Structure formats: C-alpha cells, structure tokens
Amino acid sequence: LDKLTKERATYQLEEFRKRAEAHPTELKYRFNLGKILHDAGELDESIQNLQKAKTDARYKAEGGYYLGLCLFKKKNARMALKELEEARSEFLDMEDDINKQITYLIGRIYESANKKESALEEYEKIGQIDYNYKDIQKRMESLGSIWFESKSERS
Question: Which of 24, 53, 98, 104 sits at 20 to 30 Å (Cα–Cα) from 68?
Fold first, then answer.
C-alpha cells in the first residue's frame, strides 16, 4: 500500500507539473501543484506555485493557508503570519473549515514563538465555534493555566 501511495503521489506530481506548464494561465493547476509539492516536502517550489495561484480569488484563502504552512515549515514565521492573516481576511466567520485551519496554524505559530496569550486568543476563536477541533482543548487548557497563573501573580 505504501508503494502504491508513493507511485500515485509521483504520478500526480508529474501530471500537475505538465498541466501547469501547458496551461500557465490556468491557476488551478498551479494551486494543485503547490499542494502536492507541499505534501512531497518540496517547499520552495510549492511556495513559488502557491504565490502564483493565490492571485486568483478562488485560491486566495486556501492558497494562502498552504503558503503560510510552507513558510512556517521553512522557519519563516513572520512571513507565514502575514500570509495567513491575509488569507483569513477572506472570511467573515469561523464556520468555514479552511478558516479554522488558518486560525489554528496562526495559534501554533504564536505558540512556537512563545507568545502564549496570542496563541490562546487564536485557539479560543475556534473553540467558541468548534470546541472539539483538533487538539485545541488541550492547548487552551495548557495555555489557559499559564495565562491564569500570570494574571494571579500580578494581583
């Protein structure tokens, strides 16, 4: 099964590369190629394709999410946050799953930068709508106890 999965991924990667080259103005191919490249760990090439794809309004939010994810994996948290905030601005509420993914990733970035209060605020945005989303309960409890302790120490 693992061999079959790798073969399928290789086929998809080659196929979307061909399509993107053959149809450079069809940004859906750039978007799909960017996602596949991300999954394959080819982050630099993924970033290049996602930047092109997100110029199309249809891919601005999800393309921005994957772009932010690639940048975060490349240890460029500041650029990742900018991309994710721009992608999140496409949404009015937290009901959309991609908005939850974006907000979750923003929380993870803040958490990795030791900005615990900002991380907690991001997780709470999701928790108000979907308390069982991924591992936010655990993260909110952990960050909430830290937040509570720091508030009581100031009193």
Answer: 24
